[in-house]
Design brief:
mainly beta, single chain, 0% helix, four-stranded antiparallel beta sheet, elongated, 174 residues
Amino acid sequence: KLSKLDISSNKTEVLTIPGLESVVYCIYQEQQSKTIWLGSQGNGLFKLDKNLKLSRVVNESNGLASNIICGILEDEKEQLWISTTNGLSCLIKKSYLIRNYSKYDGLPSTQFNYGSFNKSRDGEMVFGTTNGFVRFYPNQMNLAIVKPKILLLDFKIANKSAPVGIESSPLKRH
């Protein structure tokens, strides 16, 4: 259960958030907008507006590395860095594009530890994994999402190569 405490009256109110049936492991509040991001144990990332109403859910179906969130930090470009049990995700909030990082990108482990994350005053981020820790400056990361060029070397129909551009071929050259 997630509760809201009114400090002036010292009263609590239990919040009901659709889709959030699991434990909340981490909470991040944006300084300017007061938007709150909740990292859950199995339902992904929940975005609440300043009135604590659900405005968006980000999870594996949107490209997040895992639905189990271990930590959330924000960089100077207003991108969220989300540690999970299956790698590190960078969420570009303006477009909701996600870039995932794994062992192939140099992580010592894709299993991050719950609550093991910090951002230093100079912007360096540190996330703890089950095999050490990861530290980096987000502004030095290459976040370009590269669209690969596609080159078809052969195209087969009924397991026979289909020529391109000849009159009897179903394939036409563009």
